[in-house]
Amino acid sequence: MGCAIIISEPSVLQDLASMLRDGDDADVTFVVGGRSFPAHRCVLAARSAVFRAELFGPMKEKAATRVKVDNMEPSIFEAQLCFVYTDTLPDGDGGVATDDNKDRNVPM
Question: Which residues belong to any copy of the BTB domain (predicted)?
């Protein structure tokens, strides 16, 4: 009697996109231009040295659950979060862009 193991298609990016979209278990909220963006410290730190330093380094945001971001438009911050979580940029219609946008240079 054999045992079959079914391996599904990789879904980590879809799972991360769901985490971002739903905000479930978010442990930090960024406030940008009056809009709130719930996020997950471990995802941000794993994907961005800037977020890692901000959230886990000696910066004051280390203990904060709400971080105010000045001098940035909410739509830009939203696109940055989308890229961090999904490796793609938003398509402008509220969805995730195609692979055509992967070659854009987005500093973080």
Answer: 26-93
Q: Is residue 33 part of a domain?
A: yes
Residue 36 is inside which H or E element, if any? strand 35-39
- 80 CB-contact burial (10 Å; exposed 0-12 / middle 13-18 / buried 19+): buried
**Sign of the CA dihedral running 12, 17, 18, 20:** positive
Q: Are 17 and 85 within 8 A, CB to CB? A: yes
Residue type, 62: K
Q: Name the residue range of residue 41's domain.
A: 19-88
pTM: 0.74
